[in-house]
Amino acid sequence: MTQVLLTGRRDGSTHREVELLGRLPAQLRLIGGLAVMCRVGTPHRTTVDLDAVARDLPRYHAALARLAVTSVSGGQYHFADHLDLDVIDVASMSSDELVAELAAHGGLSDLELNLVAHTWAHDTATPIDIVAVDEYRGDRLAVAPARLVASGAGLIAMKATTVALRASSKPEKRASDLYDLGRLLVAGAVAPSDLDPMPPVLRAGVVERLRGWFVSDAGRDRTYRDVHRFDEPRLDLDDASDAVDALA
């Protein structure tokens, strides 16, 4: 079992997130900012929300609702200490079966490719012992044992297919997704072979988008403008471009 240590302050966001994660149903697959922190293995942008994917979300709704202060339709839960959880319900079939069903009606739209990416990331998640430790004293603050976390390749697939769906009214979401992608490419140790199990149409779509944002001159310029607000740690776009070339 891989163990990941995440540093933070006592009662800070990381401490509270890991503590909450340890109480959630073990079948949930962690995605989002905390999952990226687990996969890059180095400091990353802070996050105050938990994001997950699940198959057949209604099976877990009652358990989640009991833990939450409030819950609304669509897999959104609000907990004490100002923590939120968003759960995305994935397809009931495998990603390959989903591609076959969707492709029967023609080429896949951006939204359909995003559905495939989330399903593939759900099915390829791996367990991690996540431990929050005090950044000053090193004391263990909270443990979420054997949590299923999307792989680096799974996170890249989801974020690469999500950016195109971000509304122009939320540029900060696009910027954070691109920053996460760059950090996963540079520090996430994702190898070309990690993308091989993807359905071919998903792999091609992911690589095409990564090239557009991190390799092409026009795309790199826009990506730089989007991610420059995140300055700790800095994202080296040259390193990200080289990583995309290696994956492709």
List keywords for this structure.
21% strand, 248 residues, globular
Spatial strand order of the main sheet: 1-7-8-2-3-6-5-4
From the N-terminal CA to the C-terminal CA, the straight-line distance is 30 Å
User: Which radius of gyration do the C-alpha atoms yield?
Assistant: 18 Å
Q: Can you give the mean pLDDT?
A: 91
Range of strand content:
15-25%
Which consecutive residue ranges, at least 5 long each, have pLDDT under 50?
A: none
State the secondary-structure class: alpha/beta
Tell me the major beta sheet.
8 strands, mixed
What is the domain tally? 1
Description:
With 248 residues, the chain is of the alpha/beta class. It has one domain (2-247). Helices cover 48% and strands 21% of the residues. It is built from eleven helices and eight strands. It has helices at residues 13-21, 32-40, 58-67, 95-103, 110-123, 152-162, 171-187, 192-195, 200-214, 217-227, 237-247, and strands spanning 2-8, 29-31, 49-55, 70-72, 76-79, 83-90, 126-134, 140-149. The protein has an eight-stranded mixed β-sheet with strand order 1-7-8-2-3-6-5-4. Strand 4 (70-72) and strand 5 (76-79) form a beta hairpin. Helix 2 runs parallel beside helix 7 (171-187), helix 5 runs antiparallel to helix 6 and helix 7 (171-187) packs across helix 11. The mean pLDDT is 91.
